[in-house]
Design a protein that fits this description.
With 317 residues, the chain is of the alpha/beta class. The protein is 50% helix and 10% strand.
């Protein structure tokens, strides 16, 4: 019997994990962060994943994050919990996420080592067997899936999705075609950093969904981009890419890890004290934070200016 995949209707929201000044996970701020984004209609919430600093969380902390997110979401959209790393850690997280009420797992790469495609398939199957939750595999780092590996994984009813984080469009196309040939209707996601900038290309190869770290920081604009993307409003989408996302990516690329650090800095600039990132990530310098503030101001102005026009255009169509 095939496990049902969660239905995602909206941009995929990857919340940050807030920390106190002392470095502990700040669950009250996390609940506020998640709840404040729900009015912008995310298609799903993915706690304790990449933007949520999965790499820096203990199993206990990650499961606290998942429980708090499930409570804040309260069934309104699917909650997909992060799991991965060492096999024992991934199994523990899979079981705990199921007990916490999550709707699925995003399976991040194994820790440090990489194996053969058959070994990677076996690793996925071992984690999937640990709970009753559907699993989305994440293609990046030490988890490099081949088309044949995805064909084999499609035989497992718990494997319901594939998220690409490598940017190899040719291989991603092979994997989409291989999955289609199995008869399984897998969910496909673009998981590149600042995925809005590459989603036009991914849509062209049959990958319609994408994750958005920017949604955590500026949901007004990220939701506008998603609606323009779905409605085929390329004029609005190109304006957002030129005026907001391209400058954001240029700043992001200055320092490793800024795919997370800038999001947390942006949240702080907008009044939510989510704290700093944990090592080895670093916070932006005051000068970089000032530039981020200017980019956010531009983004908010764009959202205010373009949202009515996009809505009117959609009504006309």
């Amino acid at each position: 019997m095939t496990t049902s995949a969660p239905a995602f209707d909206g941009v995929l929201f990857f919340p940050v994990t807030p920390f106190t000044v002392g470095g502990a996970v700040h669950l009250d701020v996390l609940a506020e962060h998640v709840a404040s984004r729900l009015p912008f209609a995310p298609g799903g919430v993915f706690p304790a994943c990449g933007t949520g600093e999965f790499h820096a969380l203990s199993a206990g902390e990650a499961l606290d994050v998942v429980r708090t997110t499930v409570q804040a979401v309260d069934g309104r959209v699917p909650v997909i919990a992060g799991a991965g790393g060492p096999l024992g850690h991934a199994v523990e997280l899979a079981r705990g996420a199921s007990e916490a009420g999550a709707d699925g797992l995003l399976l991040l790469p194994p820790y440090l080592v990489s194996g053969t495609p058959a070994g990677l398939v076996a690793w996925v199957e071992a984690v999937a067997a640990a709970s009753d939750l559907p699993v989305i595999v994440y293609h990046r780092g030490t988890a490099r899936y081949t088309a044949d590996a995805v064909t084999r994984l499609a035989e497992n009813p718990k494997v319901v999705g594939f998220k690409d984080g490598t940017g190899d469009i040719g291989l991603a196309q092979e994997i989409v075609l291989a999955a289609e040939a199995t008869g399984r209707d897998l969910q496909f996601f673009n998981g590149l950093l600042t995925a809005e900038l590459s989603q036009g290309a991914y849509r062209g190869i049959g990958i319609p969904l994408y994750s958005s770290a920017a949604f955590a920081m500026i949901p007004e604009l990220a939701a506008l981009h998603y609606r323009a993307y779905v409605d085929g409003d390329e004029a609005t989408r190109m304006s957002l890419l030129r005026e907001f996302y391209t400058p954001l990516v240029r700043l992001r690329d200055e320092t490793p890890g800024f795919g997370v650090s800038l999001i947390k800095a942006g949240l702080r600039l907008r009044g939510l004290d989510v704290g700093s990132v944990r090592p080895p990530l670093v916070d932006p310098t005051p000068e970089q934070e000032s530039r981020l503030g200017a980019i956010l101001e531009t983004g908010l102005a764009l959202a205010e200016r373009l949202a009515p026009a996009a809505a009117a255009d959609a009504t006309a169509r």
